[in-house]
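Sequence in, structure out. Go.
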Amino acid sequence: MRLLYVALDQTVPGSLGGSVHVQAVAEGLAALGHEVHVAATQAGEWPGAAVRWHDMRPPAGIPTLRWMRRAAVTALARQIGAQAIIERYYNFGGEGVLAARTLRIPAVLEVNAPIVDYPGSSKRALDRALLIEPMRRWREHLCRHTDLFVTPARQILPDWIEPARVLETEWGADTETFRPNAPAPAPFPRTPNCIWCVFAGAFRAWHGAVHLAEAMARLHASGDARVGAIFIGDGPERAAAERAAASVPNVVFTGAIGHDAMPGWLAAADIGVAPFDVERHAPLRLGFYWSPLKIFEYMASGLPVVTPRLPRIQQLVADGREGVLYDPNEATPALETAIRTLGDAGTRARLGAAARDRAVRDFSWRAHCVKLDERLRRLAERLS
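Output:
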């Protein structure tokens, strides 16, 4: 099929989750035989030749104006002869879905943020104050004209959407690039007696990086000097995490690095830590709807994962088999106790191997794209 993938607010290439996702899905579908065109914001040399990239960004670079590109998206889809349009959902988007409607071709909406309002949403309060609820009506208008929803969590879609229109599946990791012993120069000094934890992320409040920094400080204060930590990335909570670990040896903050360097950094670590703090992100009142790329990349790299025991995470990481889950509501020792559980090299090797096997089987971008490919072909047959 000839596909147009619309993700105007995402920069490609890039190191953030959205950028990685768009590139991986586009390349994965191309590898399965589709002719894939992507409309996104160019941020450097386009990656590879398997995908046909088109520089199209929101007006003035403002994501909330994405919907104004409907005519341009329609023109591009008509020019390339698109047989389906995939749009990456955004609250103020819709340009891809409506272009597909104009051209009478299938519309696919990729949803990784809630379409429904979460309890206490300020956007919901504003919508009600406007009486006719324009934002809800707009979202539901788009949903009525979407042929297939692709999402990791059904609860972030309106409950009136028929199950037949939903593909519930996880996002993924590039399990060929992220692997144990990924070739790369040693990114940080290894010492025989140090167990390196790694955190990778955008340092938003709900990513919980400060919790790992505080756990490192408590471990050090207790006399346990076996563990170090690498913090990869940048963002609003980085300064707080640096302050929390200011006096702790073997703690390194790298700043942002290119995604192509990530496999080597993860392969050089011993434990992958994803200390999510769901109380710091109001939309998660709907439940943990994320499909966490960092966890999948840790697992693909052969790292045992330390992360909170939350209902959906328990479906992704089996406690005691692929990692160690801790109670996020427990008093402060919970995270460092989980890390101490992985003090034995044999335990880390066993759990890391199981995590790698699970990632390859269930959480690779190839596995995701195979499922999407099947549904796209069925959709095309049904609507032809």
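Check: The chain has a mean pLDDT of 92. The chain has two domains: 2-172+364-383, 195-362.
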